[in-house]
């Protein structure tokens, strides 16, 4: 009995098969990112009240918090695919890890930058070497190290494995970021959103932040899929199917 490829996930483990699927999913995630971002900004900037202690400066959380969440989540997903590549020696797993790294670095940089903008009016300083800030900065260096190490090695297979090992070593930094406010005395407040308890935020504020988190999530997936399609074509350029795909790409996009 033949298995329908649409329901066979192993079918999409081949870059040739995943490439068109990524192309079909990409516009949906991009559209969802726009919708969730518009809704989140409307709720966060228009409906949410002014905070009694921080004033309107707190509204930066609608960018800062989702970016910080995604910086950690993307690293964990990147490390997961790196591990899958090392264990099963699957090319697509390594490609997925490489596709995620730039977006993760962007989210980490955005979290650090907005954190500095938030810190100046709230804490009176742009930067303090507390545990969470420092560990988040280390996360940025890990992303940059992953990208740089991969680019520095000419052989793709060796580059994949070396970068994957670095990604796995860096995983230890993620729980340090997350639990730093509990383990050490830092400027950062404790978590306002908890999976096990009630939120300390007003419902409308929480709704705005969750909508923005979904927007960041959808954007990250869309960006990774777009980058993955480029990586697949670059690595599979010697195959007939990739050459046919490249012939369909307009000259301006190919550049």
How are the elements arranged and paired?
Blueprint: H1 15-47, H2 61-88, H3 91-123, H4 131-152, H5 156-170, H6 173-183, H7 203-235, H8 240-248, H9 251-254
Describe the structure.
The structure is a single chain. This protein is mainly α and 255 residues long. The protein has one domain (31-225). Helix content is 74%, strand content 0%. The protein contains nine helices and no strands. It has helices spanning 15-47, 61-88, 91-123, 131-152, 156-170, 173-183, 203-235, 240-248, 251-254. The radius of gyration is 20 Å and the shape is globular. 31% of the residues are buried.
Q: What is the gist of this entry?
A:
This protein has 255 residues and is mostly helical. The protein has helices at residues 15-47, 61-88, 91-123, 131-152, 156-170, 173-183, 203-235, 240-248, 251-254. Mean pLDDT is 86; it is low at 251-255.
Give short descriptive properties of this protein.
about 260 residues; mainly alpha; about 75% helix; disordered C terminus
Give the N-to-C terminal Cα separation: 45 Å
Q: What are the low-pLDDT stretches, counting only 5+ consecutive residues below 50?
A: 251-255
Helix-residue proportion: over 70%
* Share in β-strands: under 5%
Oligomeric organization of the protein chains:
single chain
Major beta sheet summary: none
Spell out the helices and strands N to C: HHHHHHHHH
Q: Which structural class do you get from the secondary structure elements?
A: mainly alpha
User: Which outline best applies?
Assistant: globular
Mean pLDDT: 86
Over all CA atoms, what is the radius of gyration? 20 Å
What is the count of structural domains? 1
